[in-house]
Amino acid sequence: MGIVEVSVRKRPFVAILATGDEVVPPGQMAGPGQIRDINSYTVAGLTQQAGGIPVLGGIIADDFGALQAAAKQALAENDMLVMSAGSSVSVRDMTVAVMESLGEPGVLLHGVATRPGKPTIVGVVDGKPVLGLPGNPVSAMVQYDMFGVPAIYHLQGLQTPPRRGLVWAKLTQNIASESGREDYVPARLHDATDGLAATPVFGKSNLIYTLVNADGLLKVPLNKAGLLGGEWVEVRLF
To answer: What interhelical angle do 95-102 and 64-77 show, nearest 10?
Structure first.
């Protein structure tokens, strides 16, 4: 048999940093005002599903020098960098400044017209993707699926990401929204007489149970001020 040559790409290494004085490891008992690190592990799982290799960089305190040093080293040693929390606008949210300090071109956008996850940061440093995710776990997971997963596919040479599992289902109740913003609402699916039915799982973006109790994310289109019960809606399956 003749020799067959094929082009291949290595699996990209994705560095993941959690930030915040209030964040503690999952195995540690959380005290008053503390929360366990969830985002590192949900991001790592999505990274593996997309073909990347997650590299957990631990929890970095709310200190500019410490975060800058950790981010610089992580980016130098890996193909992509993800930082969770610190993307909003409080005095302790330093991800934008850190990202800008790492190299060119830096931050490409800060803020997206979606809910959850409005304060998401997207950037590039020396040809490597850099993301700043919101701290709330539902926001972080949704936005990483939107921006991080496609970046991993791109690093592997895929021009078109694999097709997502999408279904259409009839909405069981009204959903409020705002025109000009694309909403993603966790939803449960069940069989109905005329096909699938979708029931929203309402809850704040810091409550991971909304995803645990859902089968996928129900999409409220950008220019619709909500949806009515009985409408057919698109659901992105997990």
So the answer is: 50
